[in-house]
Amino acid sequence: MSKKIAVLLTNDFEDSEYVEPVQAFKEKGHEVTIIEMEKGKNVKGKQEKIEVVIDESIDDVSHGEFDVLFIPGGFSPDILRADERFVRFAKAFMEAKKPVLAICHGPQLLITAKTLEGRDVTGYKSIHVDLENAGANLHDKEVVVCQNQLVTSRQPEDIQAFVQESLRIIG
Amino acid sequence: MSKKIAVLLTNDFEDSEYVEPVQAFKEKGHEVTIIEMEKGKNVKGKQEKIEVVIDESIDDVSHGEFDVLFIPGGFSPDILRADERFVRFAKAFMEAKKPVLAICHGPQLLITAKTLEGRDVTGYKSIHVDLENAGANLHDKEVVVCQNQLVTSRQPEDIQAFVQESLRIIG
Predict the structure, then answer these.
(1) What average pLDDT does chain A have?
(2) Judged by CB atoms within 8 Å, which residues 87-126 of A form the interface with B?
(3) Region B7-29: what's the mean pLDDT?
(4) Mean pLDDT of B87-116
(5) Which residues form the signal peptide (chains A, B) (predicted)?
(6) Which DSSP category does B111 fall into?
(7) How far is CA A114 from CA A70, A94, A157, in A?
(8) Is A87 helix (H, G, I), strand (E, B) or coil?
(9) What residues does A5 pair with on adjacent strands?
(10) Is the separation of the CB atoms in B170 and B68 below 8 Å?
(11) Continuous H helices in chain B
(12) CB–CB of B126 and A79 under 8 A?
């Protein structure tokens, strides 16, 4: 069944961590909505390979409209977590126990939303201490699935495993 | 008296947070050494205003050669803290109680070095929860001086206060 996937994205995202999962989600018939501060804006990947047009402003969407949250990595999550609207949006998915898929620096948004206490996670090497300090159980593995709800991976090399487990969870 | 200041810097540093403090330090007669992975490499600020040539490789320096550590912000500290050599270097200054000056995302290196428990700090908004989770006492102020040793600030707008307190601590 087609699911509605919200993607939180701004400049300096890790190109492949956006492109490859989104392509796989769309191929399975899921509907993807890219959300940032400003609808219609172009955002660029940090490798400067990809430009993406923002579908919706965070002000015009509600978490209730979506089944799944996807947070690509790069520096995008750190920029977004300085804005309380994105933190609240991510927190709502975690509290509703909807599927949340976060790769690389993606879990930074979940740290700021204070949602990782006791959860099994992984993430990019630079945020490992932050994840442990947030009370999460850190695993240095290509993909970690927690309570059949939260899927996390470390880096671009893990994308295949990340997509496979994400698609399994999305159902 | 002239002091030897080590600066940890790589690509995507916040341009003004490097340029303005370093200029002020040099004007007071202090000696500044820019350290990254590779000596002679050019690194660029995230605003693309500034390029800096690296003076020394992290492999060729010891913390004992320097009196002070300065960590500019932007995404540079997050890149550096994925490399254990920079984490150890920063940790050595904190353990030796030498002056450490960190602005914006600079304190991320000190989090990964596990040196902020019980310390008074500030930092860029996006890392506030990380600082609290690291056991630091977070203050939302333009500059925080802890035990006359650790100087932290939040963002480019705080540079003047950051430089003033940094110069006072350096002596």
Answers:
(1) 98
(2) 105, 108, 111-112, 114, 124-126
(3) 98
(4) 98
(5) none
(6) H
(7) 17, 10, 27
(8) helix
(9) A32, A68
(10) yes
(11) 15-27, 76-80, 84-95, 107-112, 128-133, 159-170
(12) yes
Residue B133's domain comprises 4-170
Chain B hits for A125, Cβ within 8 Å: 82
Task: Please write the tens of the pLDDT for every residue from A107-157.
Answer: 999 999 999 999 999 999 999 999 999 999 999 999 999 999 999 999 999
User: ipTM score here?
Assistant: 0.97
Nearest-neighbour CA in chain A from B3: distance (Å): 30
What percent of chain A has pLDDT above 70?
Answer: 100
Give tens-digit pLDDT for B23-40.
999 999 999 999 999 999
Residue B133 near chain A (CB below 8 Å): yes
- Using the beta-carbon criterion (under 8 Å), do A78 and B82 form an inter-chain contact? no
A102 Cβ contact partners less than 8 Å away, ≥ 6 residues apart: A70, A71, A73, A77, A109, A110, A123, A150, A151, A152
Q: What are phi and psi of A130, to 5 degrees?
A: -60, -40
The DSSP annotation for A7-42 comes to EE--TTB-HHHHHHHHHHHHHTT-EEEEEESSTT-E
Looking at the 3D structure of chain B, how many domains does it have? Answer: 1
**pTM of the complete model:** 0.97
Residue A82's pLDDT band (cuts 50, 70, 90)? very high
The pair phi, psi for residue A160, each rounded to 5°, is: -60, -45
Whether B78 contacts chain A with CB within 8 A? yes
Instruction: For residue B49, give both structure tokens.
Output: 């205003």
The angle subtended at Cα A49 by Cα A46 and Cα A50, nearest 5°, is 85
Task: Give the CATH number of the domain where residue A84 resides.
Answer: 3.40.50.880
Cβ atoms A17, A104 nearer than 8 A: yes
> How much is the pLDDT for B86?
98
Cβ pair B90, B6 in contact under 8 A: no
Query: How many helices and strands, by DSSP H and E, does chain B display?
Result: 6, 11
